[in-house]
Write a structure and sequence with these properties.
This protein has 156 residues and is α+β, with helices and mostly antiparallel strands. The protein has 4 helices and 6 strands, in the order H-E-E-H-E-H-E-H-E-E. Strands 1-2-3 form a 3-stranded mixed sheet, with helices on one face. A 3-stranded antiparallel sheet has the order 4-6-5. The termini are far apart.
């Protein structure tokens, strides 16, 4: 991905899209060498609308940008849209949920199913759970896709 070309496409997309939404939003687009190559941070009176229902609209804007730039599924984390620190807060929540699930699975010996979530959040959970020694797997289809944490296989 050429970061400058991708950033220009996202800039054009946002300049075209946002005036038609009726939302009072502005944004800052930045590029970086580490982490997401392109970050967009929204501000304005309608940030709560972006963050409603677990940031459904914010993530939809991000998804459209990923498609407009033409990224493959393993590159989609190179673009990040955020508002009011939602993603940092959500990442912390996912970390806590991962730790609690590990404790629960170890104590009960039974699988734990997380609620449905998008691919970015499932990936973060898989990474957070990787060092636990337990097995994590994504299951389900479409909007019902979720992560299940399974007990470690018993050694024989």
């Amino acid at each position: 991905m050429n970061v400058q070309e991708a950033a220009a496409k996202i800039e054009t997309l946002l300049q075209t899209l946002l005036p038609h939404t009726g939302l009072s939003l502005s944004y800052a687009l930045t590029t970086a060498d580490a982490g997401p190559a392109i970050s967009v941070t929204f501000r304005g009176d309608d940030v709560p609308a972006l963050l409603a229902r677990n940031a459904e609209l914010l993530l939809a804007f991000e998804h459209i940008a990923v498609k407009a730039v033409g990224l493959t599924s393993d590159e989609h984390d190179q673009i990040s849209f955020d508002a009011a620190g939602f993603k940092v807060s959500r990442d912390r929540q996912l970390g806590r949920a991962a730790r609690q699930a590990v404790q629960q699975v170890r104590a009960s010996g039974k699988p734990y199913s997380f609620p449905p979530m998008n691919s970015r959040e499932r990936r973060l959970l898989h990474l957070a759970l990787a060092s636990s020694g337990l097995l994590s797997a994504s299951e389900g289809e479409g909007p019902q896709r979720h992560l299940v944490l399974h007990p470690a296989p018993s050694s024989q």
